[in-house]
Amino acid sequence: MSTTKKIGIITGSTRAVRVGPQVSEFITKVLSSQLPPGFTLHQIDVATFKLPVFDESVIPAAIPNYASFSHAHSIAWSDEIKKCDAFVLVTAEYNGGPPGGIKNALDYLHHEVHGKPFLVVSYGIHGGGSANDSLRKTLEIMGAKIVETKVCLTFSQKGEKMMGLSEDTRLASAGQLGASTLEEWGGQKSEIEKGFGEVKEALVKAPE
Ligand SMILES: Cc1cc2nc3c(=O)[nH]c(=O)nc-3n(C[C@H](O)[C@H](O)[C@H](O)COP(=O)(O)O)c2cc1C
């Protein structure tokens, strides 16, 4: 039996043009540099599952097995999440909360995340802390193990503002992570590593 622990890096934003995949790439690079043997990283992009607004007739928490789902999209999403032992959830913040797409995607799940460690990483104009808190609460209710460290990454506020938005915030909205932002986020690597350390610790403690 393989004891390799698979960590899913979930990209939660689903817009046609989005910066989410680049944020996940930044996180992946940080984590890859401290990945011990026995751990693998696995990319999960919510957008690729094209989930409709939750349309199953069952409550995921109440069903004994996944055969109770009636739609192929639910089964594909559930199967993908089931494969992983722990997660780093990368989320944007829209209007003070998580993007509807990631909340909707989580609503399809229960057993697939129950008891599994989660580090939530948010990004935004002020770090996306409200979206982060909201998803931590949702995941807690679903029985996931949320690690103590909460990572909030703020787009650089350098440069000229237009309509109140910094240059790098405007760039992010157009799907590009700015150089100043990447440089500033480099200073938060130890925080990301700390959160991931807590994920690894929770995994080691978890019963097989
Ligand atoms: C509908 C919408 C609402 C937004 N609301 C917020 C917000 O409440 N807080 C924030 O920090 N940024 C907000 N933004 C700006 C986003 O941080 C920025 O566009 C970022 O690129 C979104 O991530 P994404 O590109 O992965 O979708 C909002 C963007 C959109 C599209």
How many strands, what sense, and barrel or not for the largest sheet? 6 strands, parallel
Spans of at least 5 consecutive residues whose pLDDT stays below 50 are: none
> How confident is the prediction overall: mean pLDDT?
94
Tell me how many strands there are. Answer: 6
Helix amount: 25-40%
Q: What small molecules does this complex bind?
A: flavin mononucleotide
Summing up helix and strand content along with how strands pair, one would put the structural category as alpha/beta
- Helix/strand order: EHEHEHEHEEHHH
Number of helices: 7
Tell me the radius of gyration: 17 Å
- Distance from N terminus to C terminus (CA atoms, Å) equals 11 Å
Hey, roughly how much beta strand do the residues contain? 15-25%
**Based on CA inertia axes, which overall geometry fits?**
globular
Quick overview of this protein structure:
The protein has helices spanning 20-32, 72-82, 100-107, 129-141, 167-173, 179-186, 189-205, and strands spanning 5-11, 39-45, 86-91, 117-124, 145-146, 151-154.
